[in-house]
Recover the amino acids of this structure.
């Protein structure tokens, strides 16, 4: 299988301004290697990100030019496998970043939380442990995955209509992530692999690790979508990313309802009713530039 | 077992200004009967709430005076059983109310969504169905459950520090709901039974039904809590209710972390780290006066 | 003129559950004396509110029963004069309270800001000074003014549809404050006099003082209003109180537009257009339970 | 004086990816011509933006390469004059755009407001009138003004740390706008001239017009600022742009306080106190990608 490695200088944006590092055909299975969010520079508890990390976070592997993908199409990313390529992972508490602290956007006059690093090591039982009390069962997924916006170059820390830094645990092996194609070739990239992450990613840093993701692309022609979708064997999902958080919730459920109407031929108000009684809604991240919420519905209702 | 029926005129607030309808001892099992959110007045698809419902929603059964409960205590409500007392349930789309419409608070100049009623009937398989496509498996829970605030009388549509209209599916049989006691006797009440409800309760009205809840109280002396907690056989949970939604998320995780610190002796930053990697965070409601979010942690981490 | 003094125990809510302390006729001029927000207990820089203040803030003078006011009417409060009854005022920085700190609702894990008191003294030039650098020209106004909600008892720290703790500098002498009447008699109260306050009341505590407000009531029959209005000699204004702050802005402008449509016979879209080009929109408070925003339009456009 | 005209294809982003159209020396006075937000395509009430406007809004005049400006410097833009170059202006109501409607971010299931265009013509008294009732006194200002972000290319509809689409009426003749320099040469651009605009820009479209702005640049070396500042003859101001709106308010006041501390040597808590008692806080826009709020303080306090 074709292997694609990240190329330095790494892209730290989603956008059309970065040259593609490879051209990929729909249906072709490729293996992408990804760096961790810190470019692997935080290895010890004494490696404070403010001292050792670069200026930007979430280096991307990409962009990939997907042949035949044109603006207005939908890109389906079939994730076959996500393999962790290290036996340790890192998390951190970064000053003025995270969900339970003032930030540069939620600005206060308070002192920051202390900077701190946690190194988790893989145990013989497969779990990643920081201490006996903290042994986390892996559920690997990609923190970032997206295409290029048509006009903007958006930071790899930002989730939005193009996907990006959604930090949604359902971007995982066995699922299909559907992204809008906004520029010819799609300019797909991914990175920021997580061993595991709680819903909300409260402190802003998951169990960060390098990874190897096996995937293939499918291009659905002339099928514009406004926001990312995820299809699992048992559920359909939509991802809304916005602030305040209720706007992310509104987007996620609105998109789910539009999906039911357009592709499953539901009456508009029945679709709203069904989402109201049978939908699920969890927080992917409460820390990024925009918060990401995931609305879900069981595929049992679609048959 | 002692049975307690709602008394007219029903209370439509949580507060100390309503006379208790019964006095209950800790440890005593009681059965509370509850009306649906519309006082049972919406029975047909032609019964529009704007025409047949009363001025207020969510009639409460209570308040109950819990003997020995004093301000500063914690009230643990052990929910033994929730039985549905009808074979039909009702949902509705109410103008300028709900998660995917302008409301009186998120005010716009747009026309409202049409008013509409859905009647679900219990099928032989136990599911509640509106049509063949919409058959919902019951997971009964109480939409409202709370104590009296110390000073205010808050609408039965409002969730806040006292519990109230949280619309959180984990307020269910087998779980323990922990509420702050702010006035002597606690002034507990409950109501708004739901056959089922999606996370977020997108349209603002679940499968509304009358119910019969069997529960007992336990009073933990001098154990103030700032926000409601829920304990299930496998998880501990906190409920934050606020606007914007990110504030509800912040409250839920902050309270979970304080709980880990105070009662499970975690280091503060380790507790934050654990919540970040292993917490769950879902939306109870995105429609009420305040949004309610639930943060969870597996009890496996507490041993 | 009839003088009305606050009665102990002071009401700390707006609501119908407190007995009126006086009955007033429309057209009658009354003089109300008000305590400062701390009941006058914070007098020195060493008087920390956490140690000397009572459990509740903003003691009210009232409620007043306004004769002839019935639910559905509008109460116009003509403010003739606000006199400051002390030669000193107090402000403070209170832990986990204010606009530039985490609070109990915007909860973080950070330490609070230090508690601190500022005493301002009246100078010979009439300004209130904390130091040479901080001499503030008085523009006295009432921080709280409201009627009783129909159902709830709301804290005197809360602004909402009934008025309440709006902290809006336009509640001043020479202006008319219009409040909804929701219960017979209106149950009007006021308090929390401010020597001066910046827009937003960033730290949450203005130049707090005791006061003497001279006012009279006018009852407009069968004229329901959804939110408070203010009429000055040159402008009409609406006050929206909600969270997030954009909801307060939406309410304020929506109400202004509805006012233009209903009482000044504007076309709906022209009213929206006019507000868009000629409206003013400032922040009253960014610190209370709900944020209060004021939308304004010059009366030149109304002729 | 040197005149600089916009160059097609117009930039629709702030970013370093667009080639500069001119190089300018600090101290040199230049005259920039700007197109209106619709590129002048909406000329009649029958010209609906959805039919005649291009895909993007707010064409920029620029970027200008400012000689000697390096990342970490502050760019002071002295606005000498803003001249309106047409005798008519246009406003519009655009579906799912504006402050009193659902939008693509505040998504609901409601129908949009009707699309509609208003043409204002200059009267002999200098005012711009849509009808006798709507005659607006001009107070010309630039809706967009900014530098390039270091990494991103941000839409010309977005206000953020670099300035951009702030829609703040204080970006006017006689004032100085201070912007961060994030890339060498600053990459300054401006556009979106407004005859007038209400605070909040409620419908999302001001009185849009083409303009001619006379300005000069001053570069302050090694003087990083986090957010834009404005200096008028009588006040200092900071602009915060974020969602929810309270975050914009927090940024604006935090930056004002940092400014007082760093450049006017105030004690931190005294600066907070002064902003609390004497600050002003108004809404620039409540419609763009981020809301922009302006905090102000009289220069009287700075002497």
């Amino acid at each position: 299988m074709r292997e694609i490695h990240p190329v330095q200088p790494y892209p730290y944006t989603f956008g059309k301004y970065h040259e593609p590092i490879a051209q990929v055909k729909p249906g072709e299975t490729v293996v992408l290697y990804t760096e961790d969010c810190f470019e692997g520079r935080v290895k010890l508890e004494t490696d404070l990100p403010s001292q050792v990390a670069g200026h930007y976070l979430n280096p991307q592997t990409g962009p990939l030019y997907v042949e035949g993908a044109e603006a207005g199409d939908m890109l389906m990313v079939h994730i076959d496998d996500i393999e962790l390529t290290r036996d340790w992972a890192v998390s951190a508490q970064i000053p003025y970043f995270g969900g339970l602290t003032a930030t540069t956007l939620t600005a206060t006059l308070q002192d920051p939380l202390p900077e701190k690093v946690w190194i988790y090591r893989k145990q013989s039982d497969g779990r990643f442990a920081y201490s006996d009390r903290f042994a986390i069962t892996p559920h690997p997924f990609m923190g970032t995955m997206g295409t290029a916006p048509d006009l903007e170059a958006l930071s790899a820390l930002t989730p939005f209509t193009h996907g990006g830094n959604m930090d949604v645990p359902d971007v995982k092996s066995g699922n299909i992530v559907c992204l809008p194609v906004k520029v010819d070739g799609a300019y797909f990239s991914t990175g920021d692999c997580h061993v595991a992450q709680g819903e909300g990613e409260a402190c802003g840093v998951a169990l960060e690790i390098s990874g190897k993701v096996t995937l293939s692309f499918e291009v659905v022609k002339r099928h514009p979508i406004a926001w990312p979708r995820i299809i699992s064997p048992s559920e359909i999902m939509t991802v809304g990313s916005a602030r305040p958080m209720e706007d992310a919730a509104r987007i996620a459920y609105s998109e789910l309802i539009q999906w039911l109407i357009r592709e499953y031929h539901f009456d508009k108000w029945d679709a709203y009713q069904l989402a109201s009684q049978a939908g699920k809604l969890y927080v992917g991240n409460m820390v990024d530039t925009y918060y990401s919420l995931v609305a879900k519905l069981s595929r049992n209702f679609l048959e």
In short: The mean pLDDT of chain C is 97.
